[in-house]
Amino acid sequence: MSHIDYKVGESYTFTPQEIGKDSRGNEYLVLLDKQGEHEYRVYPQLVKFQEDNLPQEVTASVRSIDILGRLQFRLDEGAMIREHYTEGKYYLFHITDTRDDPNTGAHYYLIEDDFSMHRFYRDDCEDYKKGNDCILMVKGFNEKGFIKFEEPQSKKETAPITEQPNQTQPEQPNPNNWDNAPILDIGDEDTHLEFKTSIVFVPGQKNVADIDSQLDNILKELCAFMNTDGGELYIGIHDKTKRIVGISKDYPHLNDGDDRYAGDYEQSHDGYKLKIRNTIDRKCTSLANSLIDFEFKVVDGAEYCKITVKKAQRPVWLNGTQLWIRQGCRLKQLKGDDISFFITDTMNVTIQNQLETEGVNASTVSLTKEELEEMLHKIVNVRKQIDIPLPPPPSLDEVKEWVNWLDDGSWKRTREKATDKQYCIQVPVPEKITDPMILFCYESGAVNCMRYADFRRGTNMKVLEVRKTWNMDAGRPINILIAPPSSLLVGYSVDYNGLQYVKFHDITDFTPTAAAKNKGVPFVPSGFRMLCFKVVDGSYRKKLAPLQRTKQQRSQDAGEPLDSPIFVNEIALLNSL
Fold first, then answer.
1. Beta strands across the sheet bearing 107-112
2. Which helix (H) or strand (E) covers residue 342, if one does?
3. pLDDT grade for 222, boundaries at 50, 70 and 90
4. Nearest CA to 453 among 413, 405, 408?
5. Residues near 156 by Cβ (< 8 Å), separated by ≥ 6?
6. Residue 379 has pLDDT above 50, yes or no
7. Which of 102, 177, 375, 399 is the least crowded, having the fewest Cβ atoms under 10 Å away?
8. Do 90 and 135 form a contact (C-beta atoms < 8 A)?
9. Integer Cα distance of 117 and 133 in angstroms
10. CA dihedral 252, 256, 260, 263 (to 10 degrees)
11. What is the crossing angle of helices 369-383 and 337-357, to 10°?
12. What region, left, alpha or beta, does residue 461 occupy, with left being phi > 0 and alpha being psi -120 to 50 degrees?
């Protein structure tokens, strides 16, 4: 569509590109037409756009076309406002100025929140002052989409939220000034109970959205519950009065912050849960997500979120180094010797519980801590077995040759699959692979990678090679795999608690070595045991992206729990391949 195709008064859709400033300092939005050929400027009047969170699409109407064919657009902000605000719900606004309407002479307050600016008309402009906060209900929208506000009480009873000297102001509606807000009939904060008003707004930072900082506060509480005795975290509840201030103000900010999934969160219960779970996944021990459950409830139109937290059987770390516990109604970060004592106590309880589960009375067994740990390890290894579906071998028409190993590590190549039962491992080499890689994968988690051409260099077909082709100290590999360099190496592991994990790396994350018996590099953190490995075609990388880990995370991250509630589809797809 060219300039001459536009008509004054007609509306068109555009893709926002960036926010700019003109010579007068006024911000404008750069719009790209649907054909991707022309860019236009439009000056927002009400909605406040953020550079890192631009909408995917906006509607604008042609305001005028001058004699040179230049276009002026008017953004359809009314539609955006109708979509953002919900009729009948309360919102917190900041008063930036008090003015008179030049056309009618009526008094109004210029108010704003993090999304847009509005006018709130009120006869008496003495009650509220510039800099106050006020709580208003969205009563409806006019034909242009602009808001009709209503106060939660009669104006005689309503008091503004004022800022007192030497006092910090909460970012959410202060329940003490919102007498109509319902009260949740529940006890006070203690070892098993905590209240938060928001996952977006940090207490003490008045009406400032900082979802990363506040989610860190939320994660401290969750980790502390996991490391103590479990508990319940309520979001959208004021801790002193138990009034339900609600979580509606959080939804518009779910796509804010340092998050690779920003832009994908819906303003819904699912989006709310995923935002929290994805943050947990980035910053906490892998098992943390399996220990929490969500509930969303509404009381008299006010919605809150309840997170039930289970006790963990091993320490749950925040950001890899922080260990938080619950002491009464407060948090405590353990440091120094306290960490050692906590881990030792937790391990002893876990061992005893596990032994009792297996029918062993730990009090009658005279064993050292190391012997108990070894016993637990063996119990878990024997008891926790899973049947991971492995990809079918290539058809005989696609196999170039076979590599066959004896228990002592000696091997030979054959054109056909060997029928001799003495071979413990037999691996087909597919016909159509360019520069295949061979991977020796051990139960301990070590992976050794070689170019297959280097591995078989100098060997003759059907001649038994007595070279030790794997690391004898690591034992016999649980899998030997031959695959293209573009493939994905998938690993399934289990920890001391029997929790199972899965992740994948690019094969190129494992630098080829010169010798097959090289020790290799760890695939999982210390204390984890590998169940099995398999290779998957690299074309699935994008669909399985949440399960991928970087080269630097090979020995630091076990991956996602197999029963992860977040990546159910990705794990199901991976298991089916």
1. 117-121, 107-112, 90-100, 133-141, 147-150
2. helix 337-357
3. very high
4. 413
5. none
6. no
7. 102
8. yes
9. 14
10. 40
11. 50
12. beta
Buried b / exposed e over 273-292, threshold 16 CB at 10 Å, is bbbbbbbbbebbbbbbbbbb
230 or 378, higher pLDDT: 230
Distance CA 354, CA 341 (A): 20
pLDDT digits (tens, 9 = 90+) for 101-149: 888 888 888 888 778 888 888 876 556 777 777 778 888 887 767 888 8
- Are the C-beta atoms of 561 and 501 separated by less than 8 Å? yes
What is the tens place of the pLDDT at every residue in 2-56? 445 788 888 888 888 888 877 777 888 888 888 777 888 888 888 888 766 678 7
Residue of 455, 354, 322, 468 lying closest to 401 (CA atoms): 455
Model pLDDT, residue 292? 92
Contact 236/198 with Cβ under 8 angstroms?
yes
Residue 78, pLDDT above cutoff 60:
yes
CB 235 within 8 A of CB 305: yes
CA distance 560 to 259: 17
For residue 461, give the amino acid letter. M
Query: What is the reported pLDDT for 169?
Result: 32
Task: Tell me the two tokens of residue 171.
Answer: 């970012």
133 forms beta bridges with 94, 161
Tokens of 274: 């995923």
Q: Is the pLDDT of residue 462 over 90?
A: no
- Name the DSSP letter for residue 434: S
The sign of the CA dihedral 457, 460, 461, 465 is negative
Please list the helix, strand and coil fractions of the chain in percent, rounded to the nearest 5, in that order.
20, 30, 45
User: What is residue 98's three-state secondary structure?
Assistant: strand
Which residue do the tokens 């220990």 mark? 291
Mean pLDDT rounded to a whole number for the chain: 79
DSSP string, 521-534: EESS-TT-EEEEEE
Strands (E), 389-518: 399-405, 411-414, 425-430, 437-441, 446-451, 479-483, 488-494, 500-506
The radius of gyration of the chain from alpha carbons, rounded to an integer in Å, stands at 31
